[in-house]
Amino acid sequence: MSKKKRPNRRSPPARLRIVAGKWRGCFLPIVDEPGLRPTSERIRETLFNWLTAHLERANCLDLFAGTGALGFEALSRGAAKVCFIEEAPKVAQAIREAATVLQASDVNLQVVDAIAWLQTAKPQPFDIVFLDPPFADDYYAELCRLLSERQWLAKIAYIYIERDSKEALPVLPDGWNCIKEKKAGNVRYSLIRVMNKGRSR
User: Domains of the chain by range and CATH?
Assistant: First the structure.
């Protein structure tokens, strides 16, 4: 009697590959943390094609950083610096170790809740913000409001929003316009351009 085949259960990859730039082909670890949902290589490739003209010397903010894949990809492709915000200590430690391995000096890692940080930290103008909170948490509208009202954005800034494919974009603040949007599997992702009249740069 032949043995029944076990179902083929796909395990998530233990690491992610940086797609392009000076660290092309380097890998980032994925720690075992509930709710961690790394942005896929396919989506990252599309996103950074959208951002190509805006990355050079950009100041980036990676909220809900997770593996750090978005922030490290930005640095690899020419961004000047990235601030990573990650609440989970074990996940944040993996980002810290990856920065050491890559010899990434232009990294600021804050182990703190993203909303609390936006509410209380001293604002600085970011050119690009990666906004990818857990899908189960409806943070999008509040995050956009804080980024806008507390002056976290440069005069012209770009916001990447990743969400469940069934979810619509939140109501965006004045001056925010969706310029790109795609769907991949159960993920919908958008690029927002912000024209911030309240800043000189």
Answer: 15-195 (3.40.50.150)
